């Protein structure tokens, strides 16, 4: 059969013409408006750095902080990610601060190189101080999870935010609450021994207490400093025994707090109360579980979740369901990641400067802490406040203020 006009025409098209046509078609296909949706690139993830000390002296606390952050990230991603960015997921870049400021700074540099939009964590005050300073060089938003030293926030770094209260606010509330608890019991406590770790956190807090306790009618018999880590508290306990104070007020990290409490128990030292201020173990379920006798009736003024918030209770149940103990830094890291995600959502961007602007304008209320409205002033959340807990039986109970209380204070305890 003879060829049709169409066949003849096709035969006459040169190879060069076909190649040009193919290239043109490919170029059109590459245009965003012409590409089928299934071929479009997914919305890029937003990288956030999570900095915690998961090795070294602070490893237990760092592990809990990481757990809280991971739970928040998983929850946000499961709920659809950052909606203003087309459902972008949060991608965690984890850094081990290795319980030292130097390692924390190294991890910030690595996170900066890998393009994170913000960092959450640090835990200890010295780590937070150094890490936030390193982040400031890159205008990299840094959310302090726990670090209570007010030096962290007094430097005027525009990249640094602290959602929780610092030790100035914690001390004020702790002393107000101590006075109220002591007055209600008939003022049985008059003398105090302070025991603190000798770093940035403990030394700063002790100095503040030395000024404020006498104003409230308490006599400080002695202030005892110890290193972190500490391997023995026998001499500290013997000194407490010889002074026989009504109250012992410890301010230290988990290991040293447990060691002091156990040594006091073994030496049968029974003051009217152990009233911790930011006590490293006093608000930690592991202490209650492993050393119930040494832990009994210890009062703490510290970070803690709202015990009447269903979301907080669900978080605690989930953590304990993994076989982990529950402590305040789980709730703080969980809430800080939610706070950051809220800022990114409102900024509609992963740009660092826009996130900082959004944090400064935050009125975030989706957390699980017993706080008032979120309002950052020079990076510090003015709505943050601590509460008082007491170890009673096999649990940690909120005893003050009344709005959040689950139980009445058992004071004096001896």
UniProtKB/TrEMBL annotation:
Coiled coil: none annotated. The keyword Signal applies. Residues 46-382 form the Leucine-binding protein domain. Gene3D superfamilies: 3.40.50.2300. Keywords: Amino-acid transport, Signal, Transport. InterPro entries: BCAA_transport, Leu-bd, Leu_Ile_Val-bd, Peripla_BP_I, TAT_signal, TAT_signal_bac_arc. It holds the Pfam family TAT_signal. It comes from the Bacteria. Belongs to the leucine-binding protein family. This is ABC transporter substrate-binding protein. It comes from Azospirillum melinis. The lineage of its organism: Bacteria, Pseudomonadati, Pseudomonadota, Alphaproteobacteria, Rhodospirillales.
